[in-house]
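Subject: Alpha/beta hydrolase

B.,
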Amino acid sequence: MADDVARLRVPEHVYRALGYLFPRLFFLNARYAPQVHWGDIAAALDGFPAEDLDLSSAAFWNDWRERWTARADDYARLAERSSTVAGRSRALRGAAAAYHWAEFQYFDDHVRKRHLRRRIRDCFLGSLNGTDLGLAEGRLPARAGRPEVPYWLLTTPAMRAAGRPLPAVLLSNGLDSATEIELLALAEAYLERGIAAVLFEGPGQGLQLGRSPLHLAMEEVVADLVAHLAAEPGIEADRLAFAGISFGGHIALRVAGALGERFRCVVNFGGGPALNKFDGLPRRLKANFRFALGADVAADLQPRFDELALDPGRPPATEVLSIHGALDDIFPVEGLTDLDRAWSGRHRLVVHPREAHTSLNVINSYTLETADWVAGRLERRPG
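Prediction pasted inline below.
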């Protein structure tokens, strides 16, 4: 090998600039959910120019998108060349994950972003041929002012072989997460415990992100979904839990307050009753909210943020667990502290003092502990 060939690596200046993001790229160890590996990150970020590290600029995220798209395309070609079902499945999972990281903070070209989201879905569904994950698709019919709401019911072979109705957890996306990536990775902890997982995409979530404005009162969608699942023979309708991450955690709090009697428990990972002031958010998050809410670049979104703020009201008719980072600059922890007092006896707040939004450095431990907590509350009651 020639002496002038440099090793493939993540440049130090890149790691300094966005090391906070690396736990998000890895997220959770997964069996079914697509995920990237360190080598993928090194391949995507090797040679990233030091002068292009303004994370508030469109130029940074465009360069980021091009690099991750190239990595995803490599995996897609590897899938085409693979001579085995297992090889194709693994390569397609790599492609799906890389396409997600290509699009997740890219907002300049909405058509391109939607195309990348579609590629995530297609690659993930193609990967299922090499797994034993059961995925049954369903839809809530469209209602006035609301499109159809698709959902997936996920089960394992052991759960399907049991031949009896199952407890289930409904999971809700964050603002920029993908159903096939982060939400599925969270679901795996429940599948391992014999709990079916329902992954739904309300208006403005999943493939509807950027096509339909995010539905602010998502508890209305959840109420319809719970009623729909009551007729699902594979689900035990009185053994349901709800969990959401990031903005999905905010949705979880709304669900707890409005629909608590329909769930044994509710989990909030990193959401809160109120968002930080819009003007105080970094550019990438402002662009994220504008895209999700279908707002023009000049629109003042603070009134929408004010509309979203949740008045805790009386304690909910269920148990609620919130996991939060003390340094969260999206959903300030003070709002959750106030909610914890208002919901005393029904709400447990766990704050990680050195963590920011969604406490990603400790996500492996807190998802394990939380899944155990949920499993205990979903046990069949005597009589």
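The chain has a mean pLDDT of 95.

T.
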